[in-house]
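Can't paste images in this forum, so I'm doing it all in text. The chain is below; anyone willing to post the predicted structure tokens underneath?
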Amino acid sequence: MYRNYQLLEKLIRLREEVYQEGLETYKEWEKEIEREDYKESALNFAYYLALRRRDIRSLQEALVPYGLSSLGRLESRTIYNIDAVIKTLAILLNKDYPEEIKNLNTDSYLDGDILLQEKNIKIFGSKPSNRYSSIMVTLPTEAAEKYSLVRDLIAAGMNTARINCSHDNQKFWSKMIKNIRKAEKELGKECKISMDIAGPKTRIDAIYTTKMKPSVQVGEKLFLTGKKELKSYYDYDIVLRCGTVEILDLLKTEDPVLIDDGMIETKVAEVKEEGVVLEVVKLMSGKKGKIRAEKGLNFPKTNQSLPILTEKDLEDLEFVLKNADIIGLSFVRTPEDIDVFHKEMVRVLGEEEARGKVIMAKIETVDGVNNLPEIIVKGASRNLFCVMIARGDLAVEAGYLRLSELQEEILWICEAAHIPVVWATEILRNMAKTGIPTRAEITDAAMGGRADCMMLNKGEYIVDTVKALDDILVRMKSHQYKKTHQLRALSIAELEE
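Text version of the structure:
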């Protein structure tokens, strides 16, 4: 434990180191920042990254007895928070402190939060005043023909409609958009449109099987190929065609291959000229795992040096750019991916119009997490920018046990950069499909309220699920904002009544 004067000296040294290191980082970024309104956020972000390169747990513990901030809630205002603690501690100890801190302006304390909220509204639109987070919903195919579904979703609380370009086509997307705009006028409520560019997601293109229903058990073997003509290779009962042929050349024996977001775990048992033999090693549900076309394939140990935009993406791009309020870019791994996408936007729209678009980087890989600071600075320097925590593929790529740690770090990093975050994948999944939520997913939804937007996927009971999420978010507003607990009166008395 530090002595009083040692604690103050340690804090002042920390402040100086963070300030200088952060300023150097910011100066490296500044020449590439084209949006003036992002410079203040970038500076705070640089300070935050400088701080988080250090282990300050002993300092935090030493501050607690003084009733001061333990620096655990400084994401959106890093230097200000450190300065406020130094000034207060110095006054308590009757010690001198740096001149630049003496005129600390308390009016600027919430500037970072205000900047984040302003971006939140610009990107996801206005939302009810009684909740912090917006609600995004992935539209099913039937939303193209069933206007009442779209209207009911907006009425229930949907703020952003998501169209996944991995499914359907421009004809269906046009009808969905028409229904959204019609419902906006009828209800007098704004609804943003987000369209996800599919990206280099590898899927099962087709299935050949000798079974009535294609399903597998642990220990069973199947064949994965890139050949267009499917047949019974080596007498396997199930043959899958991989949508990304290049991946097959990179696979080695024992490499993991995960099917349907990890619902079926396999490993490469043998590499052959026409493809690879996969052996089922684990099933997430029951004794049999169903295999269906269009489900995803993940290769966690394989270096996927695939282009961020596929041929299909380039075909879809003009439609997406002209119709979407938010463009979701899938499987972003590096800042160079953002550069590639921006050049394509400029090619389609021209420089000025391209800068007016909102980009949402979907973080689905370990590379994406590791490079997140550089990805954010690259994206936010030219466009309004937000990040999606795509928990499905991220869990598959990083391992389920690391997911909670990674999503927390993403939330902290984005708040420090004043970048809105979408919390996605399996939120209230059981309720959307069956009408009945599990206890665990209710808690997950409540914790997801720390994000700026929460995304629900399609299901038969999706309208009821939107209503339920809206209710959860309204209740949680009085208890929590980001990492800050709000101490309203406890609800115990309400439960007893």
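The chain has three domains: 4-109, 115-200+307-485, 202-298. The two ends are 47 Å apart (CA to CA).
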